[in-house]
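REVIEWER CHECKLIST
Item 1: Sequence provided? yes
Item 2: Single chain? yes
Item 3: Sequence as submitted:
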Amino acid sequence: MNVRRLIPAAAVAAATAVGIGTLSACGGDTAAASGTGRFDVVASFYPMQFLAEQIGGGHVHVTSLTTPGQEPHDLELSPRQIGSIEDSDAVLYLKGLQPAVDDAVAQSPVRTKIDAASLTTLENHGDEVGGHAAAHDTHPGEEPAGRDPHIWLDPVRYAQVAQGVGDAFAKADPKHAADYRKNTVKLVGKLDALNFAFEQSLAHTKTKVFITTHAAFGYLAERYGLTEEAVTGLDPDSEPSAARIKDLESMARADGVSTVFYETLVSDKTAQTVAHDANLRTDVLDPLEGITAKSRGTDYFSVQQANLKALRQALGAK
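Item 4: Structure as written out by the authors:
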């Protein structure tokens, strides 16, 4: 079993500094390209949309390329959506998660391109699932293969990204820079508090191992000294092998695992199969790729609190 190593604290400042250097050039006061009178931001999917709205406040007009309930990994863009990127003041996306978005952004003349992946550190988690290297859903244009994009589930990495986005907004729309910076400080403070809650709540548990159907929680596990055992890899639609299911059953008995987690945007069929064979319960651990009526909360923070509650119960927190 592998309890993944923690990220050095020094990575925060360094990653943010490197990330800001990757932003495309942008100049003085901008009039929103969309004609809304506000700074027009296109976000690739919910975690990016949430950052833009929290940091931008009333100064920004945010649209998301991924509709609520849509699996973001599978996103294909319409000509209208591609046009919305080209007409925007800024695009906020996470390179490596949605190849269609990566391609559209690369070909777009939009002046401010903010790649969240460049604002923090990414690691290879998919090749750790079940000891197999082929677990990652690699697409053309995705580099390097195996990098886990689910950085937003780690509050510390998400805060690093927030800082970079705040700096980018302030640079691209200097008239409102003070408000962007103030909103960023507030958001980072709330993420720091969430991180503290996870640290304190998961410090003492009966087991450190949890099972998921989709390997989305590698960064969260790493941050809090846990081990995620995923039925499949980073691709939520891949099918597990019979050998992998048997391995998980043995591991669950050995490590005192009680629960198989599934997510809101993907069928729970795989979780039910594993849970039934190993006599385990099932529960939701939400990867926060979108907010729907089925979500256990209305925004990033409330869903993360629900995730923490579910993990505390599954791990036997004391």
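Item 5: Key structural point noted by reviewer: The two ends are 22 Å apart (CA to CA).
Item 6: Recommendation: ____
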